Amino acid sequence: MFGKRGNSSGHPATPHTQAPQAFESAGTDVLAPERPAAERPDTQEQAARPATPTAPPRVEAPQLMSQSMPQPAARQPAPSRTRSESYYDTKSQVFSALIETIDLSQLASLAPDSAREEIRDIVNDIIAIKNFAMSISEQEELLEDICNDVLGYGPLEPLLARDEIADIMVNGAQQVYIEVNGKVEQTNVRFRDNQQLLNICQRIVSQVGRRVDESSPICDARLPDGSRVNVIAPPLAIDGASLTIRKFKKDKLTLDQLVRFGAISPEGAEILKVIGRVRCNVLISGGTGSGKTTLLNCLTSFIDKDERIITCEDSAELQLQQPHVVRLETRPPNLEGEGEVTMRDLVRNCLRMRPERIVVGEVRGPEVFDLLSAMNTGHDGSMGTIHSNSPRECLNRIESMVAMGGFALPQRTVREIIVGSVDIIIQAARLRDGSRRITHVTEVIGMEGDVIITQDLILYDMKGEDANGRILGEHVSTGIGRPHFWERARYYGEDRRLAAALEAIEKKAD
């Protein structure tokens, strides 16, 4: 179907001189040198052959908070073996012949599955005509690799298909690391060269209307499933482009699953459900990779379906299940340095959009002041995440970020605003064994003098570790029988449920 046809006089058509550039726009990498015309496959013969069955499409996956926890048994792709230089040489020759054969305009008009089927059919013919000595498994591996190079993300495709991987870290063309169960390990995956890696980075970021090149070497983007992507390219990255992907798992994690993985106790989960239900203003605090975004997704599942929710994010990662959700995303400046839309712009604008709840994916700058104002002016139940290592440090960081915005307010005034806005701080942590745990559920209850007063409802008590080095511990109550948000729980009819959960976690401690 896609072979170059002969002209009306019966002579073969000349090769399309723009094929490499057109193929680049279709999502390929650097092309191998052109092959002589005598080595090209007979495309009319190949068009008559039945198409080779296509491989199943890749399923991308969202991130789990408990990436370090044991996962249900699932069928995962076999790990890729180390490939020799001869494999890459053969692949380069087949790839070059494929470029000379296909009609790119027709390929671009096909659905992904149909395009993959046609490419596999042509590659099979090329392998047969050139008489490459390959086993069936090697040929199938080559077919899949070339389809991934043309239509997907090249060597990254097998890693994106593995659901247990939490992070993919590419340090130039020759080094690819992954995080599995909280531990980082090196893989056998590699790119042909740094240009192929850069082209795949460009393909990823272009899907969300962004670019990465020498003039704009740093870029944040996302995959279609919401997985977070960061690219830093030469000349800033000396040894080739550096690509980091924070993967999301395909099955959305729920609070009940967090209980099974040990991130929170059943009684603690019940308290979190009440907190989400009674419209407490919540900040989720934690370090990098501690599971803040996943926990935020879990808490938003207890928002009523008739509420209007507006989310503000740098890269759209939250996946709320309610029907009435408006998703907003920041925008970087263009080449002229204009057109930037910051997080603060989004938060300030969403106050004019009649929100009932505002959810900020990550609070990292002056927008915290606008979020606090929203929490304190009728938008109860708003939520956000913030980078910090403890609830007390979270409060200090909020003060620092307010100062970053240039607000000339007395320290006491800022703290009064914080006390009047934030109800609950939930601290998430990634422990040294790679596991994720909710370590604090803390209330902000008021001020004594110039000091903000907090009280812990739930703490994670580490007992030690087992023979395999895994942390042993349990979630315990601090003995608070009547939290500061008790009246709010009574207003929403959740006081009995809250009392039962507090009593159960205290009995468990006894």
Task: List the main descriptive attributes of the protein structure presented here.
single chain; alpha/beta; 9-stranded mixed beta sheet; 6-stranded antiparallel beta sheet; 17 helices; 15 strands
Short description:
With 510 residues, the protein is of the alpha/beta class.
**Model regions low in confidence, pLDDT < 50 over at least 5 residues:** 1-80
Helix content: 25-40%
Distance between the termini: 74 Å
Major sheet strand order = 9-8-10-11-7-12-13-14-15
Q: What's the overall geometry?
A: elongated
In round numbers, the mean pLDDT is 78
What portion of residues belong to β-strands?
Answer: 15-25%
Q: How many alpha or pi helices?
A: 17
Derived structural class:
alpha/beta
Write a structural description.
Helix 10 (266-277) packs antiparallel against helix 17 (495-509) and helix 14 crosses helix 15. The strands form 2 sheets. Strands 9-8-10-11-7-12-13-14-15 form a 9-stranded mixed sheet, with helices on both faces. The protein has helices at 19-25, 43-48, 85-101, 104-108, 112-130, 136-151, 157-161, 194-206, 255-261, 266-277, 292-300, 343-350, 367-375, 391-404, 411-421, 486-491, 495-509; strands at residues 165-171, 176-180, 183-186, 218-222, 228-232, 242-246, 282-286, 309-313, 325-329, 357-363, 383-387, 424-430, 436-448, 451-465, 471-477. A hairpin with a 5-residue loop joins strand 4 (218-222) and strand 5. It is elongated, with a radius of gyration of 27 Å. With 510 residues, the protein is of the alpha/beta class.
